[in-house]
Design brief:
595 residues, alpha+beta, seven-stranded mixed beta sheet, six-stranded mixed beta sheet, 34 strands, 17% helix
């Protein structure tokens, strides 16, 4: 079969949150509801300068807003400018905002740097030993409490509903904190006194003496080094490092939570089907050990048992590139809002055809880059409209969190024609402060005489579906048939916010069916490509069958609008059902043609 151009108007963004989960159990929610109407007694904490401040210092203020925050929690970061804005709006009306940092892992120096970075105008206090967090049953950052004139709790929960677990709405539909303040200032009861806070778990001081034989130094450091540190280290894309005992114990509760939920490490393939070279998932034994360690109070153990720190290639993970292509100019990413795709045109000056063996896209500023895609647009294409031009091009490299460099098997390469134009497509997400980015892509080339097989991209796409309103498990299928023996290198499922699950099956000429990849819980925030450990032979006549399920119901928190019919479209409020794949012709040997 002829490979179709690899259309990737995809990876359509959303805010990537690394360590969020929903606030816990019904018993905790009931406990928080019981706080409503109870009085908060005077307390005294020190700010990051070491100066004591107490609740009584603000006795002349009509209302107090206590906001539990963290220096490295992505959701706390994105909500900090909103708290700053609300503080400035309501301060003249007698409302005092107070930030509280209860995280074990956040030092006064780090809190001071964070407050300066976000120009926080209200006091930020260090809750050493998480004493205040315990009294108020605070679990998350960010989590807010509103106290009335006599310091009774009148509201506790989230700030609003714009951001959440993999959720980035155009605007908030419910502004609970602002509404509670307005109602109290007007001497009205709070309509919604409690909501569920979403964010990172507060890094608490352990209340029990560490115990047991499972220790950080002996077992846990090895697990973290193998599964986490590649991204969770200084200068890489994760929002906080996990390279030392002190760093890990501060995030231990959050880590156990996202491990148990399968959110981290980011790998969503059912292990019963397929073997993949980029599988980063934890084993059942590793998960059990980590949970036991947290349950036992996170003992450090004998430091002499610490494994050597893992070594990573400095800079490029692919090694030194043969050529580097950078955005033509830096781009300023706004502090807030949804940013349209940005395109940067580059002339690679290819005077002859090029054969690419390895490609790596690197974000200049990982804090605000959701994805980077490099497209090669063939000569003669109208490039005045990048969105349309890329439909006629092919992907060369993709960066998205969790995706390794694109490397092809020995003797195979991707061909880019002489005279082609490059477009770097950028999708940015905001993190609460204005920043700049200048991302880049590195390529390695092959000697054309050494290339035996041409890499080809294809896609199985269904563009004719219609998802009914409120449907919670709508099925869409599509397939392609191969007209010759093919070697399948990888699979790449793509859907949008309503995507629920995606499965690739091979239906062989003899009628048998094999599941190649099953993603039972699709997550739009992680655009993962699944690379087979060994190329998979698909004999002539094999059909690649793709089955996707969509949740268009109100139970899907990421759903833009459950009342609407949904059809195929490139925007994230629409849907896509595309199974991308990379193949080689099994019997091809281009070197024979060159002799």
């Amino acid at each position: 079969m002829r490979a179709r151009p690899a259309l990737l108007l995809l990876l359509l963004g959303s805010l990537l949150f690394w360590s969020f989960s929903r606030a816990p159990m019904a018993i905790e929610a009931a406990a928080k509801r019981s706080l409503i109407g109870s009085r908060v007694e005077n307390f005294s904490l020190r700010d990051f300068h070491g100066n004591p401040q107490s609740l009584a210092d603000f006795q002349d203020r009509k209302l107090i807003v206590i906001a539990f925050l963290g220096c490295d929690c992505p959701l706390a970061k994105v909500y900090t400018p909103r708290l700053v804005e609300l503080s400035k709006q309501y301060e003249p009306q007698g409302v005092q905002f107070v930030g509280v940092n209860s995280n074990l892992q956040d030092t006064p120096t780090e809190i001071a740097r964070w407050a300066q970075t976000y120009n926080v105008p209200f006091p930020v206090l260090k809750d050493a030993g998480n004493t205040l967090a315990d009294k108020l049953l605070a679990e998350r950052t960010p989590q807010v409490y509103v106290l009335d004139a006599v310091r009774n709790v009148r509201y506790c929960g989230r700030i609003d509903d714009q951001f959440g677990v993999g959720l980035h709405k155009q605007k908030a539909a419910n502004r609970e904190l602002a509404t509670a303040i307005e109602e109290l200032l007007a001497d009205k009861p709070v309509t919604t006194p409690t909501t569920e806070a979403t964010g990172c778990a507060i890094g608490r001081v352990r209340k029990t003496e560490p115990r047991g034989d499972v220790t950080y130094s002996n077992q846990i450091a090895r697990i973290v080094n193998a599964r986490c540190v590649e991204c969770h280290r200084t200068g890489e894309l994760a929002p906080f490092p996990l390279t030392t005992y002190d760093e890990v114990i501060g995030w231990a509760d959050t880590m156990r939570e996202v491990i148990d939920q399968g959110r981290m490490p980011p790998w969503f393939a059912d292990p019963q089907h397929g073997k993949f070279s980029n599988d980063c998932s934890m084993t059942a034994d590793e998960k059990k050990l980590f949970g036991q360690w947290v349950e036992n109070g996170c003992p450090e153990g004998d430091r002499k048992q610490l494994p050597p720190a893992p070594e990573f290639a400095a800079g490029w993970r692919m090694g030194k590139p043969d050529a580097v292509y950078e955005m033509t100019e830096p781009y300023t990413v706004a502090a807030e809002g949804v940013i349209d795709y940005q395109y940067f045109q580059i002339d690679p000056k290819f005077t002859e055809d090029k054969w690419i063996t390895v490609a790596e896209a690197r974000p200049g500023n990982p804090a605000v880059v959701h994805h980077v895609v490099l497209f090669a647009i063939p000569p003669g294409t109208d490039v005045s409209k990048p969105e349309q031009a890329q439909a006629d091009g092919q992907m060369i490299a993709v960066y998205a969190p969790g995706m390794p460099p694109w490397k092809y098997p020995e003797g195979s390469a991707l061909k880019v024609r002489a005279g082609s134009t490059f477009f770097i497509q950028m999708h940015y997400t905001t993190d609460g402060r204005e920043q700049q980015d200048r991302s880049l892509v590195g390529l390695k080339f092959a000697d054309p005489a050494s290339v035996k097989k041409k890499v080809m991209y294809g896609m199985a796409v269904n563009a004719g579906f219609e998802i009914p309103p409120h449907a919670d498990n709508h099925e869409v299928v599509t397939k392609v048939k191969f007209s010759r023996d093919m070697l399948l290198l990888n699979l790449f499922p793509h859907m949008h916010y309503r995507g629920k699950s995606f499965r690739f099956d091979a239906v062989y000429p003899d009628g048998t069916t094999e599941t190649l990849l099953d993603v039972p819980h699709y997550d739009f925030n992680w655009q993962l490509r699944y690379d087979f450990t060994e190329p998979k032979l698909l004999p002539k006549g094999t059909k690649l069958l793709c089955t996707g399920h969509f949740d268009n119901s109100e139970n899907n928190p990421s759903n833009p609008d459950p009342t609407k019919k949904v059809r195929f479209g490139l925007q994230t409020f629409e849907e896509m059902m595309v199974g991308y794949y990379t193949i080689l012709r099994a019997d091809e040997d281009l070197t024979q043609k060159k002799k």
